[in-house]
Here is the input.
Amino acid sequence: MKILPGPASIELSKKIAKNLNIPYLNLEYKQFTDGESYLQIDGEVNDEEIIIIQNTFPNQEKRLLEIMFLSATLKEYNASKVHVFTPYLCYARADRRRKEMEIISHKVTLELLYKSGVDSIMTFNVHNKEAFTSSVPELEKYDISVLPLIKKYLESETDDNYTIIGPDKGVSEELKYLSDGLDVSYTALEKYRDSVTHEISMRDIGIDVENKDVILFDDIITSGRTALDAFRIILDKRPKSLTFVVIHALAKPEVFVKMKEIGVHKIISTNTISRTDTEQIDVSSAISKFIEDKFL
Ligand code: R5P
Here is the structure.
């Protein structure tokens, strides 16, 4: 077993290899002036199982293609198996067809990874677990939860004045898990998507959070529209404090600036997307643990 870093996750790969005492393959990487990637793997891979660690955000297409290049070359050099650990798996939300001939990018992504030699893929909190699990059955897939790490963080931060709110019922299970055992209540707001315009609207379901410490939890933020709409509803009810907790924080920095402007006190995300404008919960221990339990 050896670890091969993808260009996007060199430091993370080194950290995991060091933690687990797994040999590490150096990667020579450069970007040509036209933006294309040059990659060269340094080391023996014959008959070895290799874990490529590479995140797929930002620059989703480039990062995916690099994984495919690496995987195909590892197989050409007789690696026995290629596994990929990507903390955030891109294109996972395009998981069903809403219009005729629309591309189900999630499925195609998994197919292309498999066709380029990837035997298994591991990621954190994929958007639609069912679609992830059922697509491309030949590819082994592991959806690992960072919720235990988030819950541990919340344990030391919350008391019985806290309540956790989700922007829609899609995160109900996560809300239940996070509040279970902590002295906090939870509710999910209601979100609708217009089937023609795809416009999203959120309904005030009459929550009472006056003087409460409110945590808004979501699995992912991109445009920020969902979270900002939820905050507007919550803010009308005069909470004592507002915190945003999100697993995958893909939003542009301006979105978090806006959140602070409207009165959000704290923004917490995991480093499945590494950034400096949120308080980050480190998930590297969960990567190490999964690799250790599964492969060592
Ligand atoms: C939706 O089902 C997800 O849980 C998120 O609420 C959504 O994807 C967030 O997207 P945005 O930040 O663009 O509103």
About this structure: The domain at 2-145+283-295 is CATH 3.40.50.2020 (Rossmann fold).
